[in-house]
Every structure is written in structure tokens, then in C-alpha cells.
Structures
1.
Amino acid sequence: MNYTKNEVLIDVKEVNLTYDKVILRDINFRIQNIVRPGMNQGQVVSLIGRSGIGKTQLFKILAGLVKPNSGTVMVGVDQHPVEAGEVGIVSQNYILFNHRSVHDNLRLAMKHDSLALNDKDKDALIADYAQRFALEEHLKKYPLQLSGGQRQRVSIIQQVLTGNRFILLDEPFSGLDALMIDRVMELLTQVATLHELNTLVIVSHDVENSLAISDTAYILAKEKEKEGATITETLDLIEMGLAWNAGIREDSRFQQLVSQMKHKI
Ligand SMILES: Nc1ncnc2c1ncn2[C@@H]1O[C@H](COP(=O)(O)OP(=O)(O)OP(=O)(O)O)[C@@H](O)[C@H]1O
Ligand SMILES: [Mg+2]
């Protein structure tokens, strides 16, 4: 596979979080811009760990919503400290305005759009996304009139429309049936390849789906006789020949890796 890893886009250094007990201990990882000749290749990274391990807390730290007790999160090509609001978040419970239609929620997301599109072009873009993600019949509905899967797709598109290069997703596969998981995978892959610098960070307990879509995965777990969760394993799925392949689930090496990792979280 022909690719290079260039500039650092997200750099997490020595992050610690303690409430009444240690939740996260010495979290370190970085995400580099992956470049593949002749294509827009974004980055898809997952942080995988069992329920209660601290994934949502780490998600909030990466989003700038929770300050760690120590350590830093730097983002962007210029590597500045992350600020709340600058990364897109698709949280465990999707944030949509319930008193506005799907269309208006999406229009609102484009308020600060850097392309300076006029109203007609904005509507055309929304219609285009809606069509691609099977939402065209639902644009006039309100969020509470949608199914969970539809709401999730609106929420992901909303983050794409804000123009955020970084999008964090907390448990994007939970509560979806197999067909819908495939759609979300497709949508995320499309988002990742829309722009070279687009970077998706997924936190999830779902080993199989997370590994299937990622180029890099980090296992978040406890180490023996130590408090708090830390990264216990780094999987470079590109080097393993298991990335960028929609049919990867059928691969026996992939299946082996999934069952191995299930024992490690
Ligand atoms: N504000 C808080 N004060 C004290 N403890 C907290 C606070 N918020 C979260 N915790 C604790 O932090 C730990 C990690 O919680 P977190 O929500 O990050 O888990 P998670 O890995 O996302 O779990 P799940 O997979 O169930 O979503 C839990 O033990 C939780 O009780
Ligand atoms: Mg969580």
C-alpha cells in the first residue's frame, strides 16, 4: 500500500484524569496526516475499551469540553491547544434542536460556512447529502419524528456541514441494526475521504466495527495493579494490511484480530 504519514494533526500528551479515583492515566497518542497519491485520504482512528473504562471522558477531553488534571491535547496543522467548539462532536445522545426541522438543523450547521455559499447553494448541498444518505423524505420532519439511525445520520451530516475537519464520535454503532451499521460505516468512510485532512476519532466498545473502519486503533484498558485506564495496545491496521477494505470482515486474519482484542479490553 502506497502512503506516507505526514504532519501531526492531533497530539495527546500525558493526559491524566482523576475524579474521586483515577479514570485516565498517562494517555499518549498522535494522529498524523495520511497521504495517498492520487486520492483524498482522511484519517479514521478508534479508541476501543469496555463500558465504564473512561471513553466518554476521553472523548470530552479531546473535544475540549473537560479539562484533564494534567497533560495536553493539541490539534490542527498549527498544533494549538484544543478549544471547546472547534471539533465536531457526535455524542452518545445526538444533539439536535428538537423544535427545528431536519432541514433547518442542517442549515444552522452551515451558519459559519467558510465557502460563503448563498441560500440556494446551501439548500442544494443539504438536498445532496439528504439524497446520498436516504434522508430526502425526512428533511421537513423534526428530530423526534426520526428513528435513531436517521437521527444519527443527520447528526453526522450536521458535523460535516459545519466544515469541521475533526469529528469525534462516541459509540457511533450502538443501537443500530446490521444494515444501518453498514450505512453508517459507508457514510463515515465517505466523510473521511471528502478531504485529505478530515479526521474521524471514534470511541467505542464495539471491537469489530471499530477495527473494520479504522486505519489505526488504540486499546484503552487497565494495567495490572495500576489505577485508571491507559492505552495498552496500538494497532496499525494499514501496516497489518487490514485497512481501507470494505470487505475486511470476511478476512480470517481480521476475524482473529477481533477475537484477540475482545479478550484485551
Ligand atoms: N463527573 C464525574 N464525576 C465522577 N466520576 C465520573 C464523572 N463522570 C464520569 N465519571 C466516572 O468515570 C468513569 C468512566 O466513565 P465514562 O462515561 O467515560 O465511561 P465509558 O467508557 O464511556 O462507558 P460506556 O461504554 O458505558 O459509555 C465511570 O466510572 C464514571 O462513573
Ligand atoms: Mg461512553
Note: The chain has a mean pLDDT of 92.
2.
Amino acid sequence: MFFVLNPVELLQGFSAALELSLGGVQKHQWRVALIAAYMADELALDAEEKQDLIYTALIHDIGTNVSWKEHLLSLHQQGNDRMYQHAEHGYQLLKESRLFKRLAPYIRHHHDAWNGMGSNPVRLTGEAIPLISRIICLADAIEISVRDNEFIFTQYKQVVEYIQAHSGTIFDPQLVNIFERVSRKEAFWLDIANPFSFQNFFDSISIYGKSQYSIEDIMEIADIWATIVDRNDPFTGKHSHRVADVSEYVARAKGFSEDEVILLRISGLLHDLGKLAVSNEILTKPDKLTKSEFFIIKQHPYYTYQILQAIEGLQIIAKWAAYHHETLDGEGYPFHLGARELSLGSRIVAVADIFTALTERRPYHADFSWGEVRHIMTGMAERGKIDKSLVELLFVNEQELNTLVKKTSGQ
Ligand SMILES: [Fe+2]
Ligand SMILES: [Fe+2]
Ligand SMILES: [Fe+2]
């Protein structure tokens, strides 16, 4: 089975997910990519290098797992460990990936200073730093210096002066010269400030069109994103992977084809992608949530859907993954769909999510015995919430389920 997807759409979607995770960062990575593209044109980079630069820019902070406020603070204190940690985490996440390992070293060095200062143990100096990393380092600093609440033409000089002041220390002096040339173009600053310029930008970098991805490629991408979602959830740690295991198990028991089973695994891995929009403080709160905190949590399947459905070719996965809090009686959230709209794939992920949540140790509920889990889920099926046939299927083979529970609850 193959997917024909536009890689820009794929990265755009996932960089949007990252933006959500940073809690209010306004399109940081999109803007860094846009600035980097201007630099690439001025440097006359060849098409392939420009593409790698833009793709890296779109996900360069993939290793960040702190709030954007903290992230921003760490960036303003040149040379502190935090700043390097997220670059290293990003490298570790992608270095084994067939699709992205080419970009991993660029991410690793995107905060290395030109003169070698700083505490990054693996840092490089001067021209040993990959050019793509040097451009992102500069573009990142430009983006962070732009203030959204101020007219762009009254502040751009300050941004240029800030960059010039660090030429030869943090930034490659040759790139600073190139940036000075770029900075004379009013359109450059207007593109940064104009919230509607991004669609044009993404259209302009989509010229290479769609590529073919294998189902294993998509699984690998889903796995990376599940790891990012799960690391924000210290209580369960591996929730997305467990939901994927259970979804796969139920799909197989239901007689799905091998390709469909893998699609369900992918949907399980991605179901909580929108949780990146929920701050760590709320996700890890040990006490009961307030009403407004609960509303914030309830946004997550909406964002899972928004991100995935925008990637043409992933629409089925979007529905299977994002409808996991919908119920057959139409009382679920956020779309209030009913039995007619909820396909088997969506119903499987919903059942897998509930089962996983009940068998995981969480601070706000006691450990349930297996009999209790079955009782709770049968009750939900009887009240018209979840698919009865799937709940029965889940509990049909006690021995297999035992093995699965052990695996999924990490016992
Ligand atoms: Fe960064
Ligand atoms: Fe969820
Ligand atoms: Fe979940």
C-alpha cells in the first residue's frame, strides 16, 4: 500500500502540531522557514539544498519539550544547556529515521555559535557547522527578535543591528552580509509580518508536488509523533503506543486486512496528536481539573483532526484517529457525531483508548481489576456509547488479552 502525499503538506501539518505544543508560539517555525528561503535565494543555493533547508526549518525545534515561554527564555541566554538540549533531543528523535535522518545533523547544530562558544558537548565551530544549521541559527534569531504587536517598519532596524552586533561570534559573518542584502527588501519584512503570506509561501515551496510514501514510512512518522506526544505525559509515558497496540489487536480480531491493521496502528499512534495543544501543567496536574482546564483538554481531538485532515491522502487516518471521544449516541466530543458517521475504524480507536486509559496507572483513578474494566466498558456499550461487538471481541480471548494488558500497561 502506498500513500501519495505532498511532503510540504506533511511537514506543514506537523510543524503546526509543534507550534501548538509550544503553547502560543506564533508560527515560529513557519517564519524561520520563510526567512531561510529568502537567505537560500540570495545565496543561490541549489534546489535540493534549499529544500533540505526549508524542511529542517519547519521542524527545527522538534526536540523541545518545555513550554514556549521557557524555550524563549533559554534562547535569550546564549550558551546555556537548555538551548542545546532541545537541539540534541531533535537529533536523537530523527537520527534513525529513514525519511528524516538526513536532516538530523542540521537540527543538532542549529544553535552552535560560529566562534565555538557555549556548553554544547558536540558543538562544531565555524565552517564545520553545516551551512543549513548556520542559516537556521540566524533565521531563528531574526524571527524571535520580531515583535508581533509593533509595526514592522519601526522595528526592523533594531533587528538588523542585533544581528550585526553578533556577527562573527554567534553568526557566520558571511551570512550576516547576505542578510543585510535581504533586509533591504521591504517585501521580506512584509512577508514576515503578514499573517496571510504563509499560504503563498507554502504554495511556492510545493512545486515539486507529491511523492510516494510506503505504509512503513507513514508508520515511522506516526511513531516519531507518538513519542513526542507521549513524552509530555509522564503518568502514562507510552499511552499513544499502547492505544496503537490495542487498536491493532482489535482490528486483527475483527478480520481487517493487514494494510488496514497497520492503518489502525497508525491511527492509534496519532489519536492524541492534538494533546500537544494542551500545556504540560494541565496534562500532569495530579488533582481534579477545573472546568476551564477540562475544556482545554477537550480541544485535543479537534486539533488531531485539523492537523491530519489538512494532509491530502491522510483523511481516513484523520477520521479514525480523531473521533476517539465521539460516542454512538452523539453525545461525545468535539463533533457530536453519531453511529451513522462513526466507521468501524473510529470505533476501534475509541474502544482501544478507553481500555488503555482504564488499564493504565493514573493519578486520578485507582487501579482497576480486569473484571472491573470489563464491567465498565460493557456498561458503556449498553448505554449506547461504544460499539458492543468490539467490546465483546476485545474480551473474547482472555489469555491473549492478558498478554496485551501486560504489554500495554508496562507491567
Ligand atoms: Fe531551537
Ligand atoms: Fe484523547
Ligand atoms: Fe488517548
Note: The chain has a mean pLDDT of 89.
